[in-house]
Structure prediction request, 174 residues.
Amino acid sequence: MILNIQDLSLFEIFLKLWAGRTGQILNYNELGTACGVSHNTIKSWINVLEASFIIKLIRPYYKNVNLRLVKSPKLYFLDTGLVCSLLGIKSKEHIQSHPLKGSIFETFVVSEIIKNRYNKALKEDLYFLRDNKGHEIDLILDSGITCDLCEIKSSMTIHSDFFKNIKYFSKFEL
Prediction:
């Protein structure tokens, strides 16, 4: 798929804006407004980036498969080096104090899981879960038999609070 991008400076703005939102839920209209382009342009840019293996859309988890296609996905870059470059992060010291350190770390972990699954020729079956009360699971690995719930944190120490959402969702049959 080749896309004729008319204004490379707008596309660069889009990439930088999204680098600052990696791992967040995708909102086409919000991005289009921020870049000064239509949501259809944003959709076409995202399609090209996903087809080029630069980004990956992770769909929300629902037992009803049809709902997975309706709800907004999360967008992850597959290269955290590119994310850091777009954000102007030039050293490991800079990333340690950067406000997006957690998002960048989550992006790194998710991208490595995706690459590992590609290399093993496994089905993708990766999702995230968020309810209307604010409970969220960063990543769900669905084997078809079980669902492994993953919380991704960049902290050097483990806190029991990190597991509260896993405990919350473990009450339900996923």
